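[audit] Reproducing an earlier prediction to check determinism. Same input, same settings, fresh worker. If the tokens differ from the archived copy the diff job will pick it up downstream; this log only records the rerun itself.
[audit] input (391 residues):
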Amino acid sequence: MLVQKRKNQTMIKINSKLPSSKESIFAVMSRMAKTYGAINLSQGFPGYPINNQLIQLVHKYMNKGLNQYAPMLGVLELREAISKMHFKTSNYEYDPELEITITAGATQGIYTAISSFVSEGDEVIVFEPAYDSYVPSIEANGGKVIYVSLKQTDYSIDWEDVKKRISSKTKMIILNNPHNPTGAVLEDDDLKKLSKIVKGSNIVILSDEVYQHIIFDGKKHCSIADYPELRNRSLIAGSFGKSLHATGWKIGYILAPDFLTKAFRSLHQWVVFAVNTPLQYAIAEYIQNPDNYLQVSSFLQEKRDFFIDVMKDSKFKPIPSKGTYFQLMDYSAISKKGDIEFTEWLTQEKKVASVPVSVFYHEKTDHKVIRFCFAKDNSELEQAAELLRKL
């Protein structure tokens, strides 16, 4: 049934906080993939089932009757399990009671963290290409975004450029490590340089580490928690959607020193208050076995290597992915189209959906690079590569 506009409808005047906000590129490309029957390598969600043991654990806790509100902080068992998990990977143990808060996915945690500390006129340094939720969250809270572009060759950070962008109004620096959309990772030297830059300041760091368990080639994830100068001024955003292949569950967490956590929770309680109860219990039990999150890197590295191998006879040029489950490809040898036009054409005509990287830049900088998600069944990756090799 078509909904018709009502006659004589009164329109009130409103002031939108984000009047120029557009639909997320992930939603746009996934819808296009569905419309044109294309293989969806655009939006970052796994194309294979989660571990059946985890599903059974959810049933277990639902059947136990644990279906009512969880504590605002999150289920204690999960906070304790996260503390142990993080200690295993970073050698720093966050206090489950005072320094860990369960959120409705990492994006909610990130928005609440920004809202908790960024006020009208505050400046926030963002590295671009930047994950698309950061800038709207800053602007909705009256903050001013200060952009620092990653180096085009390897998507590393020019720390001298960062120093130049810091002012008396700088309230926050947002990091994303491993980095979406590029797959770049920060090294020990990067975080040591950042430590020197922020020392003695009142700058808060928000470190988006949702892909911390997806890092390749034997590298160690350098968490912000490994560096005392940074840890004592930082909030870390984590997510089980990535490491447990369950993006639709929207279970994340924020790690932070107690004084930052107190400020974060003062707002968090009014945003969602509590997060899905049986899922929290299920994850808490599941991650008691470290293999259930430590094996994710090798599992996805095999998929990265497989995708690169089946694409080797194509005209696409891979840009090394050191983490996440995304692979950038340079298509400049194939087409002169802009990356937005190229991805639309690729979806409609060649039946493979990807994401244009220019949308992650505020000035839509176009380097003829697009992003593929390789967290899919190998058969799907092979089918996509067969179509792409024909270009």
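[audit] rerun output stored. Observation attached for the diff report: The chain has two domains: 25-44+294-388, 68-288.
[audit] end
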